[in-house]
Amino acid sequence: MNSTELKPGVHWVGGIDWDIRNFHGYLTQRGTTYNAYLIQDEKNVLIDTVKPHFFDELLSRISSVMDPSKIDYIVSNHVEMDHSGALPLMLEHAPNAKVITSVQGEKGLKRHFGDGMDLQKVNSGDTLEIGKNTLHFVHTPMLHWPDNMVTWMPGEKILFSNDAFGQHIATPQRFDDEVGWDILHEEAAKYFANIVLPYVDQGRKALDALADLDIGMIATSHGVIWRSMIPQIVAKYDKWSRNETDQKALIVYDTMWGSTEKIALALQDGLEKAGVPVTRRNLKTTHISDIFTDLLTSKFILIGSPTLNNGMLPTVGAFLTYLKGLRPRDRMGLAFGSFGWGGQAVGQVEDVMKELKWEFPQEKIRINYIPDADELVSVRDAAFEIGKKIIGETQK
Ligand code: FEO
């Protein structure tokens, strides 16, 4: 298999996963890549590896450039197995290679692979001379594991960013301008929402640490390499890591006999009449990882469930579990749903929003059995009033 030359002496040698559709709960409809990079200098350096079963692909691409046994260093920017899984196999073919990793990375690699590797831990700010080039290591803890770091190669202005700025997409192209902004923006937003969102503060710190670099290329560990759209993707990361939302609404719900859906539609109607853009997602038809792409930039989140067996529908429960894990902040929330008796679900939904310290523009909405015409008008009118307030805030 072939490699792709990024700059003279710098090659992409990773693996393309055309088949993966679920990355521990994250739906990857477009597949993904596990990117690894080979730097040839007086010392030869491999940046990261791949998932174990992509090792043959990695080895084949490295071999298309040079003899793998001549690799002097392997930089392990991140312990997670999609980047370190092939490390033991790689070391069998590069027996003289020393593994460079962060302080937390050293601990993590030992827990994954034992004590047999020749590890050299680096602190944030440490450098490694490899000939005419120098590599700089910057720790980016909790972006998104404690061990994460990035590697900066100032000679070629390449930032090997590992998971940061990634997108889950398998393509024969390696560069952003060969794929296009719309698809990459969608995948980068989904990636941020599902992976980076709980750690926005750490993301902010990492961005600040990288702010002074004159970056010409961001070589990520997933998806394509950014070379033409760096200002756009950095601006998006800046927005997302500041938790900046747009004045738009997201309605997420499931329904048993259609009553909760009727409330959802009335809410949508009122908000739209007030001029608020609304995205409506039925949990039966849209995967939670896709809903988080919508949630990333939505200010007003409305979540609905009927009551089943004294609780919410399991689909709504799964969504709320995921929501608590990703813990988006500074949102407005509204819980709604129909019920026959008991009617506990709506309160349980609202409790999760309270845990997240969201604001509530009005009381939760609970309607017995089937909402009648008057009740739907009331719901629509309430949503219209909330919508006017939201739009008013936009225009202030
Ligand atoms: Fe792509 Fe956190 O591994």
Query: How many strands, what sense, and barrel or not for the largest sheet?
Result: 7 strands, mixed
**Strand line-up across the major sheet:** 1-2-7-8-9-10-11
How many structural domains in the coordinates? 2
Give the oligomer, counting copies of the same chain as homo and different chains as hetero: single chain
Instruction: Give the end-to-end Cα distance, rounded to a whole number of Å.
Output: 57 Å
Segments where pLDDT lies below 50 for 5+ residues? Answer: none
Q: Which percent bin holds the helix content?
A: 25-40%
Kindly name the structural category: alpha/beta
Shape: elongated
**Strand tally, please?**
23
CATH first level of the largest domain: which class? Answer: Alpha Beta
Which molecules are bound besides the chains? MU-OXO-diiron
CATH superfamily placement of the largest domain: Ribonuclease Z/Hydroxyacylglutathione hydrolase-like
Strand content: 15-25%
Give the helix tally.
12
SSE layout:
Elements: E1 4-7, E2 10-12, E3 15-17, E4 22-23, E5 26-27, E6 32-34, E7 37-39, E8 45-47, H1 55-63, E9 73-76, H2 81-84, H3 87-93, E10 98-102, H4 103-113, E11 119-122, E12 127-129, E13 134-139, E14 149-153, E15 158-162, H5 181-196, H6 200-210, E16 217-220, H7 230-241, E17 246-253, H8 259-273, E18 278-282, H9 288-295, E19 298-304, E20 307-308, E21 311-312, H10 314-326, E22 332-339, H11 345-355, E23 365-368, H12 373-395
Parallel strand pairs: 8-9, 9-10, 10-11, 15-16, 17-18, 17-19, 19-22, 22-23
Antiparallel strand pairs: 1-2, 2-7, 3-6, 4-5, 7-8, 12-13, 13-14, 14-15, 20-21
